[in-house]
Structure formats: C-alpha cells, structure tokens
Design brief:
The complex is a heterodimer of chains A (about 550) and B (about 325).
Chain A: E1 11-24, E2 27-40, E3 44-48, H1 55-61, E4 70-79, E5 82-83, H2 89-95, E6 100-103, H3 107-110, H4 117-121, H5 123-128, H6 133-146, H7 165-177, E7 183-187, H8 195-211, E8 215-220, H9 223-229, E9 232-237, E10 240-246, H10 247-252, H11 257-264, E11 278-289, E12 293-304, E13 308-312, H12 319-327, E14 334-339, E15 342-344, H13 353-358, E16 359-362, H14 376-388, H15 392-405, H16 422-435, E17 440-444, H17 452-469, E18 472-477, H18 480-486, E19 489-494, E20 497-503, H19 504-508, H20 514-521, H21 530-537
Parallel strand pairs in A: 3-8, 3-9, 6-7, 7-8, 13-18, 13-19, 16-17, 17-18
Antiparallel strand pairs in A: 1-2, 1-4, 4-5, 9-10, 11-12, 11-14, 14-15, 19-20
Chain B: H1 2-19, H2 24-29, H3 35-45, H4 51-63, H5 85-120, H6 125-139, H7 142-156, H8 172-178, H9 180-205, H10 209-216, H11 221-259, H12 264-273, H13 277-304, H14 307-310
Helix pairs in contact in B: 1-13, 5-6, 5-9, 5-11, 6-9, 7-9, 7-11, 9-11, 10-11, 11-12, 11-13, 12-13
Classes of the chains: A alpha/beta (about 550), B mainly alpha (about 325).
C-alpha cells in the first residue's frame, strides 16, 4: 500500500516508552520493556514477532487496555491528543469500539455464540446514538457486501455457528469498521484461516482500510502477510523493538541479525529423491463418519520408504482423515491398507502390538498430546516399556539416547511438559514416536502451532533423523513453505478427493489442475506487490 | 427416560414400604388382637396376597389415575369411613405447591440477581458477605433455621405466627402472613446453591474471548454480564435451579412438620406413623414425580437455550 503523503503529519496514535508488566508467581515480570511508536492517519503499521514477543499486549496497550493480571507500569498512550493512560476506564470505554476498534485472531471464539451476528456487528456503533438502528444495519449490510460475503442482506441474521470461519473473520472486520473508527488493531486476523480464504480476507481488509483512510496496527507472525498489508514494519522481540522501517526497506535490506533470521526461515528447501520401495499404501479407500458423512472418496496413496510424502489441502479436505484411516482409528468402508506389501487389518483393535509399533503419530498440539502430570522420562519411557519391554537401567539409557537424538540434554528427563517451551514439547513428542522404532511416522500439522524460527528447527531435526535412521514421514499440512522444505512427493487433496499427486517438483511447477493453481497462487510471497498483482491478474 | 426413572422409583417406594415393621392391621387392632382377627383384617385389605401381585395391582390402578383408598377410617369393628387417597392428597397438594411456589418465586430471582452482582463485584466486600451469609444458611439443617426464625420473629418479636395454620377461606394476604416463616426458611435453604452457581457460571464465561471482545467494544461491565455472559450461562444455572426447586418440594416435609402446615409432607409423615400404606405410597410418588418433572423441564430448557440446537445450520 502506498503512503498517502497529505496525511503524513496527522498523528493519530503515539506510544511513548511503554512498559507493561504481568503478574505471575507472586511477582511482576516485564512484558513490554519500553516501546515507542508513532502512527499517522491512514497508515498501517505491521507488528512482527514470535509468540511471547509482546505484540498482542502492545496492540491492546495502544487502546489503553491491559488484560487482567497486567499493568501499564510506565509510558503514555496518546490517541488523538488524549492521554489514554491518564483518563479513567469509563472514559476510555467510550472510545473503544467506536473510535478505536479491535479485530481478534479467532473470530469463531470472539463472536458470542448466543447472539445474532448483526446485533454484535452494530453493538458499538449503536452506542454513539447519532443514527438510528435501521441506518446502521443498512450500513453494516453494505460493509458485508463490500467484504464479498454471500447474501449480505440476510447473512447478519444468522448465529455465529451458522457461518464459516472465513466469513466470520470478514464479519469481524465489518464490526470493527461499522463505527468508522480512526484506528483498528488487527491481531493476527488471518492466522486461523486457510490460504485460499486468507487471500480474500486480506484483499477485503486492505480495500476497506484504504477506502476509509483508517489507521491500523497489523499484528502478525507471517512476514509475507505483513509485506502486503503494512506501510511500516516494527519487529518486536522480548518486549523490545528490534528494528523499525518502511516495509519495502525492511524486506529488501533488514539491518538487524534477528530480522535477517526471521526472513531466512522461508528459504529452507530439500532435494527430492525418487524411491520405488513402497512401505505403506492405501488403495481405493472410501471413508465416512457414522456411515453417513462421506469424507474420503477413492483415495490411493503410496509412501516410499525413507522418504516424505506431504498431503496438502484446506481444512475439511480430508487430509487428517487419511491419517485416521492409516492408523486404523477410522476403518475405511471400502479399499485396503497395505504395509510392506501385506494387508493391514483396517481397525486398530485387530492389529497386533508389532503392527501398531511400526506406525506412530505426532500431533499439532504437543500440549494436549502429553499427560501434564507425567515427566519427560515417563512420557518417552512408556512406549519403550510397552513395545520393547525395557525396564530399569536399560530404559533410562535409551531415554537419554532419545533425548540426545532430538538435541535436548539429559536433564530434561525430569521435567514436566509445563516446564517446556512449545518447540521443546514438540521435540519430546518426536522422541516418543521414535521410541517405538517405527517405520512410518505420521506428522499431522506438527509445525502449525510453532513460530517460524522454532518451525525451522523442528523441520531440520526431522530431516536429520530421516537421513540417519531412514524413517518414512507422511506429512499433513496446509503450509506450502513446509511442503517445499520437507517433501519428496506431494498429494493435493480437495473435498475428500486427490486432485493431484506426484514428485514435488512436478506438482509445484505448471501446468496445474485448477485447484492446485488456486492453492499455490494464494500463498503470500515476500514481494510487497504480490497481492496487488494478484488482484490485477484476477 | 423420565418414565423409566418413575417406574424404578415406584418399585423402590413399594419395596421400602414393605420393609416397614408392622402393618396397618396390627397398628389399628392393637396388641390384644387375636391372630385370627388380624388375619381376617389383612385379607380384607388384600395384604395377604404376595408382594409382586400387590405391586402390580397398585401400579395398575395408579396408571388409571386411581390412587387407591386410604386405610385410615376403617375401624376394627367393620365400620368403614375411609376416603379415597386422592381426596386426602389433593387439597394438601395445593397447599404444598403454594408454599414451595411462593418460596421459589422469591428465591429464584433473588438468587439470580445476587449471583449476577456477586460476579460483577467479585472478591469485593459485597461478594464475600453474600457468600458467607448464604453458605451459613445452607450449612444449618432446615428445622434449625425454622426454630431460629420462630424464636426471633414469633417469640422475641411477635411479628408472624409460629404456626402456619391455613384454611380455605383465607385471603391471599392472610395466607402469606401466616406462611411467612416457612417461606423464608425455604428461601434461605435454597438460595445459596443457585446464587453460587449463577456466580460461578458467569465468572467461568468471563475468561472467554467473546467477553474480552465485548470489553474491547466498550460495552459496560453490567451489560457484558447481562447481555453477553448470561445468555450462555443458562444451561448450568437452570440445572441447579431445577435441582433446588425439587429440593424445595422434598425439603418442605420437615418445614411443614415444624410449622404444622397442612401439606403433603405432613400428611405423609402422619400416614407413616399409622402405617396407612396407600397414602404413604401416593405421597412418595407425588414427590418423586415432582422431582423428575422438574429435572426434565431443566433438561428441556438447557437444550432450548442452546443456539446451536435452536438455530441449526
């Protein structure tokens, strides 16, 4: 987006030396350690950083809002010449939702399930009292239409669970825009969406912000997204500014080392290797939930030994169901699963311990995949005992060996999951899968919940393990960058069917079937003109 | 489901009554009666038949709306002044409904309002006072509270009568004055549970992202609770309300005895003393039905207030 020069002097928000502390373990800990920020009318500032960098806290602070258990310990928030940090909360409340609006990461969770969308969309605008309800509702419908929501006249009458996640996210943008605020805080508004939906939301948001000359703070961890949306970018780390510059400048020539490492993650790539030795294959599989809801249609996939096959697709494409079929959690209605050229019983219950041992899984949420009351030693030790009957000294040594394989020190054995970082938790889950000594590991969105730098570490680890122990991966993901980094072969799925499959380079280079084309062109690139060109070419 | 429960309950009631020591014929004829007269009297009442036959006779009649004939009024001499159970229960049933109903009308709204305010000003002096007060109230048995109230408001300050003597010709106002103390007792023993559940259900929702969103839209704290939290909190609250209303109907037994209030509870206790089995069984079944019906209504309400079910995709 180009900066509108006539508005350049018109400062709408100024943060001065903001310091915020959070209360835990009976002490106040710093979260934001002195950040300055200036935003002019019509300008969009991108806030980039890993989780824990304080970007959401800072975004909320620019509304004069701190979450329960946090406090603004120093600094001032000047919004339109008012010191928000000095005026009482009821006064600030008059600005919230009307002059400063907030768009949350998960629209599905941020809409009240018990109220109609339209009522929530216009709730803050109604409070202004200057216009009547009909006019505001009509305006909301116009906003719905400009955000390309289907049936804009009536969609507001629905309840949140009756519309899709992407539609809700757009409706939340309409909610923020309805009172025509001077400033909108976007907090990762597209992170929870599929790439194809994300593009539509990005275009809609950008047009609206441009059209109404709204200032915005755009919080994200996705650099390619921020490149499309922001005029300026601030990189945050540990609650401090690392670097701030105009978008083109910071993308082309980042000054700080930390910024450079953020930028470099997307460069990870791997040479594809063709192998004919098939370890697992599923043939003509149909699957349905409750015998009625058909989710897979005539799926055939073969996975070569010691290689990585990635399944890509949007949510609802059936990619996780493929994993459930392979592990036997959801027996297929027709078709078969073959392992080392033998038929595998379709249900987990009918498989022997040895058959189960050979296929292991790693999940997206490492948090929920581990028992929080068990130590790392118990978590990794369990499959050693169950599959290999190891006990005592032998088990202890093997756990240490496994910890070394995942590049963690021995002392981690005594820790509980709550004492580990997100990346470390995922490493423990990898070690647990390795403990069984499987031939195939199914990785279901294993890096989606992680920051990019941590993601890179996990992907490198998986590649190293593959090289050393000849492990086969089935990688389920929606992230094309991950696919490029780790795959030998790719399977593209859409609505329960395979659209395309083959060697990585073949699938990723044209000509593409329509859906693969749409999927690939929806992945944001670092080029700040990418979105503009995409809109032009459509 | 409710029906199955009711059948199981009827079997339990019948079984328990079977285990009562002694029976009506012995109780009425006295110790001096010869075995022959007792046996003849039992035969007349049908007590000589095996238990399962009597159960099916009873339940069969019950299904046709016939609650049976009370034993009391039958003299040993063969005189028969007995009345149908339905005539005994009906007027008292309305008395009990009146007492429990008025108590509920006060307790439920009061609990909701106090619960909402406690959630709004949580951890404040108000919240703590309400908590301590209501918890103390449920910690005491209801007869203790009854006597305490009689001591305070009938004896030391004689504002209300200590006996809840109602008759048909009383006006509503008179009735309320007479029943004031039992009503207050019932309100006190049911208030705490409902109030604390309302408070907990709302506070539990206050951590939801959509509540934070409402805050960030500048909605005032009171409106957040009433418009955003409460509509999502109905299911747990209604369950506890139903549980307490059911408790009202059952807990009424003790309170009725203390205040000598002519309700079903008192009738039941009297009937147990005289081994008037048909009346005992009918009263027990009335209580059980009320309990099951209220829980059924609660389930229906929690389903109906769920927007996902109310407005399917």
């Amino acid at each position: 987006m180009t900066v509108n020069d006539s508005n350049h002097t018109d400062v709408i928000l100024r943060l001065e030396d903001i310091k915020i502390e959070g209360f835990s373990d009976e002490k106040w800990h710093p979260i934001i350690r002195g950040v300055d920020l200036t935003l002019r009318r019509g300008e969009v500032m991108g806030l980039v950083g890993e989780s824990g960098s304080g970007k959401t806290t800072l975004g909320l602070a620019s509304m004069g809002f701190t979450r329960a258990g946090c406090r603004l310990s120093a600094g001032t928030v000047i919004f339109d010449n008012m010191d928000l940090s000095a005026i009482p909360v009821p006064e600030r409340r008059k600005l919230w939702g009307t002059r400063i609006a907030y768009v949350a990461q998960s629209a599905a969770a941020s809409f009240n399930p018990a109220r109609r969308v339209i009522d929530q969309t216009i709730e803050a605008t109604l409070r202004r009292g200057s216009t009547n309800r009909q006019t505001i509702e009509q305006d909301a419908r116009v906003l719905f239409a400009s955000l390309q929501l289907p049936d804009p006249e009536n969609i507001g009458e629905r309840y949140p669970h009756q519309v899709s996640g992407g539609q809700l996210q757009r409706m939340m943008t309409a909610m923020a825009m309805s009172p025509r605020p001077d400033l909108i805080i976007f907090d990762e508004p597209t992170t929870a969406l599929d790439v194809t939906t994300q593009v539509e939301v990005l275009i809609a948001v950008r047009n609206l912000v441009e059209q109404h000359n709204t200032a915005a703070i755009y919080i994200t961890h996705d650099l390619a997204v921020v490149a499309q949306m922001a005029d300026l970018v601030m990189v945050l780390r540990y609650g401090k500014e690392v670097e701030q510059a105009e978008t083109r400048q910071i993308i082309k020539a980042p000054e700080e080392d930390y910024t450079k490492t953020l930028w470099s993650v997307r460069a990870l790539e791997k040479e594809q290797v063709r192998t004919e030795d098939i370890v697992l294959s599923i043939e003509n599989v149909d699957a349905a939930y409750n015998q009625t809801i058909k989710v897979l249609q005539d799926i055939s996939i073969s996975i070569p030994r010691g290689r990585t096959v990635s399944i890509v697709g949007e949510s609802g494409s059936g990619k996780s169901t493929v994993a459930r079929v392979i592990t036997g959690l959801l027996p297929p209605s027709t078709g078969r699963v073959r392992f080392n050229n033998d038929d595998l019983p379709t249900s987990t219950k009918l498989r022997s311990v040895d058959q189960k041992k050979r296929i292991q899984m790693i999940y997206q949420m490492a948090d929920t995949a581990m028992n929080p009351k068990q130590t790392v030693f118990e978590i990794i030790g369990r499959p050693l005992e169950f599959y290999h009957g190891m006990r005592g000294q032998q088990k202890r040594e093997r756990v240490q060996e496994l910890l070394n394989m995942i590049e963690l020190e021995d002392r981690f054995a005594n820790r509980f999951p709550s004492e580990l970082s997100g990346g470390q938790k995922q490493r423990i889950c990898i070690a647990r899968a390795l403990a069984a000594q499987p031939e195939l590991i199914i990785c279901d969105e294993v890096t989606s919940a992680l920051d990019q730098i941590v993601q890179e570490g996990i992907l490198r680890l998986l590649l190293n393990l593959q090289e050393t122990y000849n492990i086969t991966y089935l990688f389920i993901t929606h992230d094309i960058a991950v696919v490029k980094a780790i795959s030998d072969e790719i399977v593209v799925m859409y609505q329960g069917s395979v659209v395309e499959q083959g060697m990585k380079d073949d699938v990723l280079s044209p000509p593409h079937p329509d859906y693969t084309q749409l999927l690939l062109e929806s992945v944001p690139e670092m080029d700040p003109d990418w979105l503009t060109n995409l809109v032009k070419n459509k | 489901m409710g029906f199955v429960t009711l059948v199981v309950v009827s079997i339990i009631i019948f079984g328990v009554v079977e285990f009562l020591p002694g029976d009506f014929s012995q109780a009425i004829l006295g110790q001096s009666a010869t075995e022959e007269t007792v046996a003849a009297f039992r035969k007349e009442l049908g007590l000589d038949k095996p238990a399962h036959t009597r159960y099916f006779d009873w339940i069969g009649a019950m299904l046709q709306g016939d609650l049976g004939i009370s034993y009391s009024g039958r003299g040993a001499s063969g005189s028969d002044l007995s009345r149908p159970v339905i005539d005994l229960i009906a007027p008292r049933f309305w008395n009990t409904i009146f007492l429990a109903g008025v108590a509920a009308l006060i307790a439920v709204p009061l609990a909701l309002i106090l619960g909402i305010f406690a959630a709004l000003f949580r951890n404040s002096i108000f919240d703590r006072t309400v908590n301590v007060f209501s918890l103390s109230a449920i910690s005491f048995p209801e007869f203790f509270i009854s006597y305490l109230l009689i001591l305070l408001f009938a004896s030391i300050w004689p504002i209300f009568p200590s006996l809840a003597n109602v008759s048909d010709d009383m006006s509503l106002g008179e009735r309320l004055v007479v029943t004031a103390l039992p009503i207050v007792t019932l309100v006190l023993i049911t208030l705490a549970h409902m109030m604390r559940m309302t408070r907990a259900a709302i506070i539990n929702l206050m951590a939801s992202p959509y509540i934070e969103m409402a805050q960030l839209k500048g909605v005032s704290p009171t409106k957040i609770i009433v418009q955003h939290a409460l509509p999502n909190a109905w299911a747990p609250i209604v369950t506890v309300i139903a549980f307490n209303l059911a408790y009202l109907v059952v807990g009424v037994v003790v309170v009725e005895i203390v205040f000598i209030y002519p309700g079903v509870g008192q009738l039941m206790v009297d009937a147990v003393t005289t081994r008037d089995i048909p009346v005992v069984q009918a009263c027990a079944l009335v209580f059980a039905s009320a309990y099951i019906l209220l829980n059924l209504i609660a389930d229906i309400i929690s389903i109906v207030t769920n927007p996902r079910i109310l407005h399917p995709k």
